[in-house]
Amino acid sequence: MIKKSIIIVISMFMFGLTACGLSETEMNNAATGILSAIQSETSETTVKTTEKKAGITETAEDDIMTAETTAAETATVTTTTAPATTTVTTTTVAPVDNEAEYIKSLFDSQSSDVWVTGSGVVTRVLKDDNEGDRHQRFILELSTGQTLLFAHNIDIAPRIDDIAKGDIISFYGEYIFSDEGGTVHWTHHDPDGSSDGGWLKKGDTVYK
Fold this sequence. Notes:
The protein folds into two domains: 2-75; 98-207, CATH 2.40.50.200. The chain is 39% helix and 22% strand. The protein has three helices and seven strands. It has helices spanning 2-19, 24-75, 98-108, and strands at residues 114-125, 135-141, 147-153, 168-176, 183-185, 199-202, 205-207.
């Protein structure tokens, strides 16, 4: 399109020069100058157009890189994991003493007439046994869970008057097997004096 326009312009210009009476050489020189000027203008226009397109392309590439960077930053997610919580269950178990374990072994083997020592907690206070020699009666629970019936002869030894559920009683006496856990008697001194006999202790007081 540009070449066609140039040819038309040059033809018109040559016609005008012919009308002015110029020689053929002069007209050729004039035509060559006009053609050079048009080509120079066309080259500058082409360069500007190319530079403009190049600028648009660079701007588009920059926009693409910016968009990719933003997307990458947006895709970065920091995950914080809460520390694991550990639940510890503590079970309190009453200590098992050697004396209680020994008495349990006597029960397991159904042994009788064995002297034992230990301590336990009063779980029940029973009525006195007043048939024959009087006996104060109560039940102790040992640390093993075994229960013992105590028959304390109050015709020979003093009574524990203030005994109550929950009291801790220490003892030394003779074990007799029974299906309920066993009975302890001889918790008093020996009237004949042939042995020391047994005893009961509540707090700082010893009953024998």
